[in-house]
Specification:
Blueprint (H helix, E strand, L loop, with lengths): L1 E5 L9 E2 L2 H6 L5 H12 L3 H8 L3 H13 L5 E4 H4 L3 H6 L6 H10 E5 L3 E4 L3 E2 L17 H20 L3 E4 L3 H4 L4 H4 L4 E3 L5 E2 L5 E2 L3 H17 L5 H4 L1
Parallel strand pairs: 1-4, 1-7, 7-8
Antiparallel strand pairs: 2-3, 3-6, 4-5, 9-10
Helix pairs in contact: 2-4, 3-4
Length: 234
């Protein structure tokens, strides 16, 4: 089983020292592509980044700073620590047992607008990007740019690991980073349909914040019970 989740926009900026051996051992699979994107990013003007990310001037300045610091690999964070959004907070990786953390490390992958696909143990640099962002000199947004590469990578992993199931806990924007028609030829894809009861008794889609918490809680349950509850929760 492979469980797919999305990156979060919020990330820690307080990086930890990284040895050369750690960097080599936990280097993201698409590190070279990420380097290339950040190199282009680092040469943009503040107004260009502000327009590209649809963010404030101050956030654009910080985004460029991160891009310019990206080549410095003597510091970084594991993906499990770097992302701080609601899903990751609700999942609460650090409070898992050692055995559950090992299971999570092997079975969870993060769809990243910069790195393509990440394991929780991959060491990454903080960045600011999004799936629907179109970089200068590119005709496609980041989700479209990653679609083929992520699909090939995922299918290869399915074959290598002998996995026959993917649990998709991603929002629609992140899901566009994959070609599901191709992937479904190699495994069963399950997508939880999260609902909450309304005052009328009918079930409705939860608001964005609650939906993220529900994804995080289900992710934790899947990890703690080694995926055995999935048929009861979907």
């Amino acid at each position: 089983m492979i469980i797919l989740i999305a990156e979060s926009k919020t990330m820690l900026r307080d990086e930890a020292p990284v040895t050369e051996e750690e960097y080599i051992t936990h280097r993201p699979y698409f590190e070279a592509e990420a380097e290339s994107y950040m190199h282009s990013y680092s040469h943009l003007e503040v107004q260009e980044v502000s327009s590209m990310l649809k963010c404030s001037h101050s956030l654009a300045v910080k985004a460029i700073e991160l891009a310019r610091e990206f080549p410095l690999k003597s510091s970084g964070l594991r993906a499990s620590e770097a992302f701080t959004g609601v899903v990751f907070d609700s999942f609460d990786y650090t409070s898992l047992s050692k055995e559950s953390r090992s299971y999570a490390d092997a079975h969870i992958m993060i769809a990243s607008s910069l790195y393509g696909l990440l394991y929780l143990t991959d060491i990454i640099k903080p960045y600011r990007l999004d799936y629907n962002v179109t970089m200068p000199d590119e005709e496609k947004n980041m989700a479209a740019l990653w679609k083929q590469k992520n699909t090939i990578r995922l299918v290869k992993l399915l074959k290598e690991r002998g996995d026959t199931e993917i649990i998709n806990l991603m929002p629609s924007a992140a899901s566009k980073c994959f070609d599901w028609k191709v992937i479904k030829n190699f495994c069963k894809v399950r997508v939880p349909d999260f609902r909450t009861p309304s005052e009328t008794g009918r079930f409705q889609l939860p608001h964005a914040g609650l939906l993220k918490r529900m994804r995080g809680h289900l992710l934790r349950e899947l990890v703690e019970k080694r995926g055995q509850t999935i048929f009861n929760t979907l």
